Amino acid sequence: MTDTAGQDTGPTAAERWAAVRRRGARGLNRAGAGDSIGERLAYLAEAGSGVYDLDEPADIYGNRIVAALEERVAALLGMEAAAFFPTGTMAQQVALRCWAGRTGDPAVALHAMSHPEVHERDALSQVSGLRPVHVGSGPRQPTAAEIREVGEPFGALMLELPLRDAGFVLPTWEELTEAVEAAREREAVVHFDGARLWECAEHFGRPLEEIAGLADSVYVSFYKSLDGLGGAALAGPRTLVEEARTWRHRYGGQVFQQFPTALSALIGLERALPRLPAYVRHARVVAAALREGFAEAGLAWARVHPEVPHTHEFQVWLPYPPEAVAEAALRQAEETSVALFPGHWSGDCGPGLAWTEVSVREPGLEWTAEDVRAAVRDFVGRLPDRG
User: What whole-number distance in Å separates Cα of residue 180 and Cα of residue 215?
Assistant: First the structure.
């Protein structure tokens, strides 16, 4: 590429990473979102034939394959019904709006680091007329005591499981049940932001149906854990879901045909969902090896958070500016075809610090602890001298 003066500045980092992916660098994770359109369509045709009758007519405004997906999700979560939504942001807003109408209270208690507060441009208040009330603080889940101590009434408690921006953290099962009970004591309904609920079962040691059963309603995503094309579902009581369908239409979510997304979600439920527990277990092996590798390489301060991952995703923190670690990660991938840290490095945590997210999926299962330690040693050797 060229700069504003017309001088050649070379390929961008995104272009360099794209070249690395084309060469098939070895990584801990490989999501289909980076594939070409042709590759994604071919995968849908190949894998989809095993989960749905592809000779059936395509859906129209949510019937046929979309309806089948809704029934499957409701059954998996032990709920009376489920409704498909084009986005999780829409699904969650609609759920909380419906509950506000039923409780008569527009206040929603939620963590300050939750998705609606960080990533949705104040949509709860600006679009749905709801009033967020923060509960809990720091990179952890709200406690039952904090829920009881909220200084004003609220109609709904929203818990994000796991809390992604805090490091994909989860409470213990006992803490979760106590938090739900604390909300019930305040006569509030409980809604789970379960975008990644699929990956929580291993941590809690409970089936999805039992986890979801603690809440009055649950939203789940089809692309975060399941590698679908997109889409989400809201599950809960049948009367709530029927009302949610009305608001879905009003919000512009009544899409004419959604069969590619619905088919990819069914594939994810068939193929990815059963593998998630193995990913979570191996993420703990990878996290331990990362800590050991940084220590062996002589890096005085490095953090894996949580130290023992709650899901198959977690954070790595290093004492370097984000541009330094990002360049070291990219050069390692280019020169060795090992993409240890292909994700974005953020510097919003303070001067001289950077963090990134690590996700362990099918490719990561092939990595031994020594593979990880060796990759870390090579990576650290590419970092600038701190003097």
Answer: 8
